[in-house]
């Protein structure tokens, strides 16, 4: 076995029993039967090892569900296969998943938190593409809310497996969630999570948003909204981002024009932050 792989597997056993903080490099090397020098040839620190474990298992999980969504040709089977594969993956990687759930609520490591957010965003993107494929125009105004609910279904029911250690009938669980999802897709009319809200999960306010990212966000919203005085104002703001020409007073007025539009409120906040108002 390659030494790096050995360290990751043995460390995972300790992390599952003790958590990240309570597990020392000394304990890891003893459990592996190697020297500290050998450990540092593979990883510069325990934090680097933890991040490597997260990358490894997150990518396995995401690859599994992404493959399932892309390779399932029959839409009638897609939602069932997606849910089943998701919970099967949690079961297969239960040790890591237990650590992931525990540590994401306790960690103050910024890189760990960022990786967790990136992972959540990737899963959300896969789910949203599946929702669009399955329900099309019928969920045009509710698809982001529905995608967020599906993530919630996964999170809540995975706790039964990973926290309460219950033996679950995955077939029954999957069929139940498929039924609930289809009912919501057909009957939901009052979404809470809009596209703008969904983007906040991708670009939180405490994250630095580049000018190019801001332009991209604006273009996405303009493609979805019919022409109004607000969209015209947003077009002008986009042009100013591309090539600054307007005074601060004009910029402030244009932002005022869009701030009360439900689809542009969050963009107005980002623009205020960008222009330092």
From TrEMBL:
HTH tetR-type domain: residues covered: 1-61
The record's DNA-binding region positions are 24-43
Query: What name does this protein carry?
Result: TetR/AcrR family transcriptional regulator
Specify the domain of life of the species encoding this protein: Bacteria
Q: Name one GO molecular function term.
A: DNA binding
What the entry lists under Pfam families is as follows: TetR_N
Q: What keywords sit in the KW lines? A: DNA-binding, Repressor
